[in-house]
Protein backbone atom coordinates (compact mmCIF):
# COMPACT_ATOMS: atom_id res chain seq x y z
CA UNK A 1 0.00 0.00 0.00
CA UNK A 2 1.27 3.48 -0.86
CA UNK A 3 2.59 5.50 2.01
CA UNK A 4 2.70 9.27 2.12
CA UNK A 5 5.47 11.11 3.89
CA UNK A 6 3.96 13.30 6.60
CA UNK A 7 5.21 16.37 8.38
CA UNK A 8 6.63 15.09 11.67
CA UNK A 9 5.83 18.31 13.49
CA UNK A 10 2.23 18.23 12.27
CA UNK A 11 1.88 14.60 13.33
CA UNK A 12 3.37 15.23 16.74
CA UNK A 13 1.16 18.30 17.04
CA UNK A 14 -1.97 16.25 16.54
CA UNK A 15 -0.79 13.53 18.92
CA UNK A 16 0.22 15.89 21.67
CA UNK A 17 -2.30 18.64 21.14
CA UNK A 18 -3.57 18.43 24.68
CA UNK A 19 -0.09 18.32 26.19
CA UNK A 20 1.10 21.39 24.29
CA UNK A 21 -1.82 23.40 25.69
CA UNK A 22 -0.82 22.38 29.19
CA UNK A 23 -1.94 19.63 31.52
CA UNK A 24 -2.33 19.94 35.28
CA UNK A 25 -0.12 17.86 37.54
CA UNK A 26 -0.94 17.52 41.22
CA UNK A 27 1.59 16.38 43.78
CA UNK A 28 1.66 16.02 47.52
CA UNK A 29 4.43 16.30 50.08
CA UNK A 30 5.03 14.86 53.51
CA UNK A 31 2.92 17.64 55.08
CA UNK A 32 -0.13 16.23 53.23
CA UNK A 33 -0.91 19.48 51.40
CA UNK A 34 -1.43 19.06 47.66
CA UNK A 35 -0.14 21.41 44.96
CA UNK A 36 -0.95 21.82 41.28
CA UNK A 37 1.33 22.94 38.45
CA UNK A 38 1.02 23.16 34.67
CA UNK A 39 3.14 20.81 32.57
CA UNK A 40 3.86 20.87 28.86
CA UNK A 41 6.73 18.42 28.60
CA UNK A 42 5.75 14.81 29.06
CA UNK A 43 5.30 11.52 27.28
CA UNK A 44 3.19 8.47 27.81
CA UNK A 45 3.69 4.90 26.70
CA UNK A 46 4.81 1.49 27.80
CA UNK A 47 8.02 1.00 29.76
CA UNK A 48 9.11 -1.91 31.92
CA UNK A 49 5.85 -3.66 30.81
CA UNK A 50 3.83 -0.95 32.53
CA UNK A 51 1.79 2.05 31.35
CA UNK A 52 3.96 5.04 32.22
CA UNK A 53 3.58 8.84 32.18
CA UNK A 54 6.94 10.58 32.02
CA UNK A 55 7.16 14.18 33.17
CA UNK A 56 10.11 16.59 33.21
CA UNK A 57 10.11 18.89 36.25
CA UNK A 58 12.74 21.58 36.81
CA UNK A 59 14.60 21.60 40.12
CA UNK A 60 13.34 25.12 40.89
CA UNK A 61 9.65 24.07 41.03
CA UNK A 62 7.94 23.55 44.37
CA UNK A 63 6.45 20.46 42.70
CA UNK A 64 9.99 19.07 42.43
CA UNK A 65 10.35 19.18 46.22
CA UNK A 66 7.00 17.40 46.69
CA UNK A 67 7.80 14.72 44.11
CA UNK A 68 11.12 14.09 45.83
CA UNK A 69 9.23 13.58 49.10
CA UNK A 70 6.49 11.16 48.00
CA UNK A 71 6.75 10.46 44.24
CA UNK A 72 2.93 10.51 44.06
CA UNK A 73 1.31 12.58 41.32
CA UNK A 74 -1.76 12.84 39.13
CA UNK A 75 -1.98 14.13 35.57
CA UNK A 76 -5.21 15.88 34.64
CA UNK A 77 -6.39 16.91 31.18
CA UNK A 78 -8.27 20.20 31.51
CA UNK A 79 -11.51 21.15 29.76
CA UNK A 80 -11.18 23.55 26.85
CA UNK A 81 -12.40 26.48 28.95
CA UNK A 82 -9.73 26.11 31.65
CA UNK A 83 -7.10 28.33 29.98
CA UNK A 84 -6.91 30.72 32.93
CA UNK A 85 -6.32 27.81 35.34
CA UNK A 86 -3.50 26.54 33.10
CA UNK A 87 -1.90 30.01 33.02
CA UNK A 88 -2.19 30.53 36.77
CA UNK A 89 -0.84 27.11 37.69
CA UNK A 90 2.00 27.66 35.21
CA UNK A 91 3.15 31.00 36.59
CA UNK A 92 2.45 31.02 40.34
CA UNK A 93 4.29 28.78 42.80
CA UNK A 94 2.77 26.58 45.48
CA UNK A 95 5.58 27.77 47.77
CA UNK A 96 3.60 30.95 48.43
CA UNK A 97 0.12 30.23 47.03
CA UNK A 98 -2.54 27.58 47.62
CA UNK A 99 -3.52 27.39 43.95
CA UNK A 100 -6.20 24.75 44.51
CA UNK A 101 -8.04 26.92 47.04
CA UNK A 102 -7.46 30.19 45.18
CA UNK A 103 -8.86 28.74 41.93
CA UNK A 104 -11.67 26.85 43.67
CA UNK A 105 -10.62 23.58 42.01
CA UNK A 106 -12.66 20.54 43.00
CA UNK A 107 -10.31 17.73 44.00
CA UNK A 108 -10.82 14.16 45.12
CA UNK A 109 -8.40 11.73 46.73
CA UNK A 110 -7.90 8.91 44.30
CA UNK A 111 -7.75 5.19 44.96
CA UNK A 112 -4.09 4.51 44.46
CA UNK A 113 -2.05 7.61 45.40
CA UNK A 114 -2.33 10.43 47.92
CA UNK A 115 -2.10 13.24 45.35
CA UNK A 116 -5.67 14.26 44.46
CA UNK A 117 -7.28 14.18 41.03
CA UNK A 118 -8.94 17.35 39.72
CA UNK A 119 -12.62 16.76 39.13
CA UNK A 120 -12.95 19.83 36.86
CA UNK A 121 -10.73 17.99 34.32
CA UNK A 122 -11.90 15.47 31.72
CA UNK A 123 -9.25 12.76 32.12
CA UNK A 124 -7.16 11.91 35.20
CA UNK A 125 -4.24 9.55 35.72
CA UNK A 126 -3.05 8.45 39.15
CA UNK A 127 0.70 7.85 39.03
CA UNK A 128 3.36 6.48 41.34
CA UNK A 129 7.00 7.25 40.55
CA UNK A 130 8.83 4.03 39.75
CA UNK A 131 11.96 5.58 38.27
CA UNK A 132 13.64 8.91 37.75
CA UNK A 133 16.55 10.36 35.79
CA UNK A 134 18.51 13.58 36.07
CA UNK A 135 18.69 15.34 32.72
CA UNK A 136 21.96 16.99 33.72
CA UNK A 137 23.65 13.62 33.78
CA UNK A 138 22.46 12.61 30.31
CA UNK A 139 24.43 13.07 27.12
CA UNK A 140 22.59 15.96 25.55
CA UNK A 141 23.35 17.76 22.29
CA UNK A 142 24.99 21.15 22.81
CA UNK A 143 22.10 22.95 21.11
CA UNK A 144 19.62 21.37 23.56
CA UNK A 145 21.81 22.41 26.48
CA UNK A 146 22.13 25.99 25.25
CA UNK A 147 18.44 26.39 24.35
CA UNK A 148 16.87 24.59 27.33
CA UNK A 149 19.47 24.83 30.13
CA UNK A 150 21.35 28.14 29.61
CA UNK A 151 21.32 28.77 33.36
CA UNK A 152 21.25 25.22 34.66
CA UNK A 153 17.89 24.64 36.41
CA UNK A 154 17.92 21.11 35.10
CA UNK A 155 14.96 18.78 34.89
CA UNK A 156 14.37 15.60 36.77
CA UNK A 157 12.36 13.17 34.67
CA UNK A 158 9.87 11.20 36.77
CA UNK A 159 8.53 7.94 35.37
CA UNK A 160 5.11 7.46 36.93
CA UNK A 161 3.35 4.13 36.61
CA UNK A 162 -0.27 4.93 35.71
CA UNK A 163 -2.18 3.02 38.37
CA UNK A 164 -5.67 4.30 37.59
CA UNK A 165 -7.36 6.36 34.88
CA UNK A 166 -10.67 8.23 35.18
CA UNK A 167 -12.80 10.16 32.76
CA UNK A 168 -16.26 11.60 32.48
CA UNK A 169 -19.11 9.69 30.80
CA UNK A 170 -19.48 12.17 27.93
CA UNK A 171 -15.78 11.85 27.04
CA UNK A 172 -15.80 8.05 27.21
CA UNK A 173 -18.79 7.77 24.88
CA UNK A 174 -16.98 9.98 22.32
CA UNK A 175 -13.85 7.75 22.26
C1 LIG B 1 2.09 25.80 29.32
C2 LIG B 1 3.12 25.59 30.41
C3 LIG B 1 3.80 24.40 30.46
C4 LIG B 1 4.77 24.17 31.47
N1 LIG B 1 5.44 22.98 31.49
C5 LIG B 1 6.35 22.74 32.47
C6 LIG B 1 7.02 21.47 32.52
O1 LIG B 1 6.76 20.54 31.73
N2 LIG B 1 7.97 21.30 33.48
C7 LIG B 1 8.29 22.28 34.39
O2 LIG B 1 9.16 22.07 35.25
N3 LIG B 1 7.64 23.48 34.39
C8 LIG B 1 6.68 23.72 33.45
N4 LIG B 1 6.00 24.92 33.43
C9 LIG B 1 6.29 25.93 34.46
C10 LIG B 1 5.58 25.63 35.81
O3 LIG B 1 4.23 25.25 35.61
C11 LIG B 1 5.62 26.89 36.70
O4 LIG B 1 6.97 27.25 36.96
C12 LIG B 1 4.83 26.71 37.99
O5 LIG B 1 4.60 27.99 38.54
C13 LIG B 1 5.54 25.83 39.01
O6 LIG B 1 4.68 25.67 40.12
P1 LIG B 1 5.17 25.13 41.53
O7 LIG B 1 6.33 25.99 41.99
O8 LIG B 1 3.96 25.28 42.40
O9 LIG B 1 5.56 23.71 41.33
C14 LIG B 1 5.03 25.17 32.45
C15 LIG B 1 4.32 26.39 32.40
C16 LIG B 1 3.35 26.59 31.41
C17 LIG B 1 2.58 27.89 31.39
Q: How would you describe the overall organization of this protein?
A:
The chain is an alpha+beta fold and 175 residues long. It has one domain (18-174): Electron Transport, Fmn-binding Protein, Chain A (Pnp Oxidase, Chain A). The chain has 7 helices and 9 strands, in the order ααββββαβααβββαβα. It has helices at 8-15, 17-21, 62-70, 83-89, 99-103, 142-148, 169-174, and strands spanning 23-28, 34-39, 42-47, 50-58, 72-77, 107-109, 116-118, 123-134, 155-167. Strands 2-1-5-8-9-4-3 form a 7-stranded antiparallel β-sheet. Strands 6-7 form a two-stranded antiparallel sheet. A hairpin with a 6-residue loop joins strand 6 (107-109) and strand 7 (116-118). The model has no long low-confidence stretch (mean pLDDT 91). The protein binds flavin mononucleotide (FMN).
Quick overview:
The chain has 175 residues and is an alpha+beta fold. The protein is built from seven helices and nine strands, in the order ααββββαβααβββαβα.
